[in-house]
Each structure stands twice: as C-alpha cells, then as structure tokens.
Description:
- Its EC number is 2.5.1.78.
- Catalyzes the formation of 6,7-dimethyl-8-ribityllumazine by condensation of 5-amino-6-(D-ribitylamino)uracil with 3,4-dihydroxy-2-butanone 4-phosphate. This is the penultimate step in the biosynthesis of riboflavin.
- Keywords: Riboflavin biosynthesis, Transferase.
- The chain has helices at residues 13-29, 45-54, 74-91, 106-113, 120-138, and strands spanning 3-9, 33-39, 60-68, 96-103.
- Helix 1 crosses helix 5 and helix 2 runs parallel beside helix 3 (74-91).
- Helices cover 51% and strands 22% of the residues.
- The relative contact order is 0.22.
Amino acid sequence: MARFLIVEARFYDHLNDMLVAGARAALEAEGHEAEVLTVPGALEVPGAIAMAAENGEFDGFVAIGVVIRGETYHFEIVAGESARGILALTMDGIAIGNGILTTENEEQALERADPARKDKGGEAAKAAIALLKLQDRFGA
C-alpha cells in the first residue's frame, strides 16, 4: 500500500469533485491511501507537490484541476506552465499523474471529469500508480 497526495487546484467545484472522486476511487481500488490538498490554482500545483515531496510522507501524487479557455492568453500560460512544472518534477523521479484538464469549454471539462464518462481523475491516479511501480522496478 502506498500513500498518495491528490493536489487539487479548486476553481470549478463540481468538476473538481468529480476528478477527485475518480482519482480517489482508482487509488483505493488498488489498495492505496489518498489525502487531498487544495491550492488556489493550477500554477500552484507543481510547487505544492515539490514541497510535499521533500518530506517523503507521500509515495506519489495526483494533480487535479480544470483550466477552461477564456478570452485572453492566460489560458496558454496556465495550461502550459502547470504541465511544464509537473513534467519537470516527474523527470526528477517524482511519481505524478497529471489530471489537470485543459479544455475549450465547460462541456468538454464535464465529459472528461465525470467518472462515469472519461474519468480523467481516475486515469491520472492510474498514471501515478504506474510511475510508482517504475520507481520500484528501477530503484529510483
């Protein structure tokens, strides 16, 4: 059994609830424990994971959030930089599943967040589990 921290950027409550539920269900189905930490936005997710990874309390992480395109360039910055930050941490050997949705509209986000549909929260948790298994295999 491993301990996972689900780090959520809580902005769209109803969508986050679904993503977290999917992630938690996927982790618990494999016998893992999950705790949830909320941060203000998607740009804060990588930093929160980096801080939490420092103490070794958690074996893996699931990043959760929803970024919906608006009328400004802000979408590109938030979507790209949050993904870049998560990827950088993953390249440093931290097991992270990225479940931060980047969509054109709320309808697309709902389709992806709903555990009964595309279940991207569950998929992100499964990715984190897979990376944790790779850590074990390669002794990372």
